[in-house]
Design brief:
By secondary structure, the protein is α/β, with parallel strands linked by helices. It has nine helices and 15 strands. It has a five-stranded parallel β-sheet, with helices on both faces. The longest helix has 42 residues.
Amino acid sequence: MSKILVIDDDSVIRVITKRALQNQGHEVAVATNGKEGIEEAKKMQPALIICDWMMPFADGLEVCRWVKTNPKLTTTFFILLTSRGGIADRVKGLNTGADDFLSKPIDITELQARVRSGLRLHQLSQDLQTQKHLLEAELAEAAAYVQALLPQPLLGSVSIEARFIPSRQLGGDCFDYFWLDPDHLAIYLLDVSGHGLGAALPSVSVMNLLRSHALPDVDFCQPEAVLKALNDQFQMSSQNEKYFTIWYGVYNPKTCQLTYCSAGHPPAVLITSAYSSEPQITYLKTPCLPIGLMEDSEYVSDRQTIPLNSALYIFSDGVYELDPAQAKIWDLNTFVTLLKNLDIDSSLDTVLDKIYSLNGVEAFNDDFSLLKVQFK
């Protein structure tokens, strides 16, 4: 048994329609005008509404607009009852949100058939909404799992903090940092092409491989060897056409040497504080192709001495490639200037606040990942 609301200022039509629908086994309520119909719809939350077009207080189009914008009635099927037969009138009704039309005078057989059809579509919409809610719950659970995999802040003479804001529930960015041994700290950030679940799965796979040191015969202290092994294993032809960029570095605190290699990834930015002059900016990047594009890609590491009182920023391109519709140009150089003008001890929350305020954005178009490694 379905709940149906009939709204019409004609008492004869109300009686005929109500009796015909009750004979089909439905629970039927009636209202004598648009205002009363809206109040009844609030209480009843019907599966289907049959509403006259021309009525006092609020006409059928006004009632339809209200129904279609009410979150509790998103699946309610709306039939507009009218003596108007013109194409322009029907287009107007459809543009307002009506799902179907019923012509006056009412033919009972047609009425019952259109109601049966409307209720089937209502049930289908409810089933789809249920599936949508289940999928959203599963995606939220998967997003919580990915967030739980990300490392906690690192404290000590080398400190690391991070911020990760996926553009959807699940994102293709991933990062990690861990001590390979007492003298070698590995740090990396990767960005899988695309968004959502399809990008998150390879991202987590790479994280698990690197965290468990599961790449065979690879010295994880050698960034070029790590990237070559990843390229061998993650060719896009076998990864649903997904490739990824990555920046991978290994820092030795005894020698203050950072060995790094990047594959199509934005450069890491090293900012060295000089109290007597402007901070010094160094871009750390190697000219290598993203992982998965070509089987025979070559990867070459580089090395950088890290002065004390320096900060290294590693990030995905979602940090600076924001809304292209913004009148103000925001690019890598602008982002680096922002970092340069901040106090070197500023937290990443300060960086985020600056990005939001300078660009007038509330959400990012791409996954946002940002690491700050501070050498004290």
